Amino acid sequence: MVERVLITDAAAAMVEKLRGRHGPLMFHQSGGCCDGSAPMCYPAGEFRVGGQDVRLGEIAGCAFYIGAAQFEYWRHTQLIIDVVPGRGAGFSVEAPEGVRFLTRSRVFSDEESAELARAGEPPRGSS
């Protein structure tokens, strides 16, 4: 099965560290202000997922959502969540660690795109 979102080992290790401090976590990537389209990590339940947010999957035990408009831009790519030195916004729980999550991507192959088309659209909202 083709995954729409993956996580690097380094980012998964950061998620584990953060989970130890904050409990269950989730990710959301919007196209909004502040960090633009950076993936933001929140304690589960502290970010309200909207009915148009698209659930791309799960990474490191965390649900990963993307805003509907951003999904339309990124639907042809696999998102790869990484962590790099530097500070993002104060809204994401990794900010005090001196790192920030970052989205890398790669274009799906024709075969992967066909498999995703057969699977149908990913779910929207918190369901």
Short note summarizing the structure:
With 127 residues, the chain is of the alpha/beta class. The protein has helices spanning 9-22, 68-74, 110-119; strands at 5-7, 25-29, 39-43, 54-59, 62-66, 77-85, 99-107.
Describe it.
It holds the Pfam family DUF779. This is DUF779 domain-containing protein. The chain is α/β, with parallel strands linked by helices and 127 residues long. It has a single domain (5-118), classed as Hypothetical Protein Aq_1857, Chain: A (Sandwich). 24% of the residues lie in helices and 33% in strands. The chain is built from 3 helices and 7 strands, in the order βαββββαββα. The strands form 2 sheets. The chain has a 4-stranded mixed β-sheet with strand order 3-2-5-4. The model has no long low-confidence stretch (mean pLDDT 92).
Topology:
Elements: E1 5-7, H1 9-22, E2 25-29, E3 39-43, E4 54-59, E5 62-66, H2 68-74, E6 77-85, E7 99-107, H3 110-119
Parallel strand pairs: 1-6, 2-5
Antiparallel strand pairs: 2-3, 4-5, 6-7
Jot down its keywords.
single chain, four-stranded mixed β-sheet, 127 residues, globular, DUF779 domain-containing protein, alpha/beta, DUF779
What order do the helices and strands follow? EHEEEEHEEH
**CATH structural architecture:** Sandwich
Give the strand tally: 7
- Structural class designation: alpha/beta
Helix content: 10-25%
State the oligomer. single chain
Strand order of the largest sheet: 3-2-5-4
Roughly what fraction of the amino acids lie in strands? 25-35%
Query: Number of helix segments?
Result: 3
CATH T-level topology:
Hypothetical Protein Aq_1857, Chain: A
Form type: globular
- The top-level CATH class is Mainly Beta
Low-confidence stretches: none
Distance between the termini: 20 Å
Radius of gyration: 14 Å
Largest sheet: 4 strands, mixed
Number of domains: 1
Average pLDDT confidence is 92
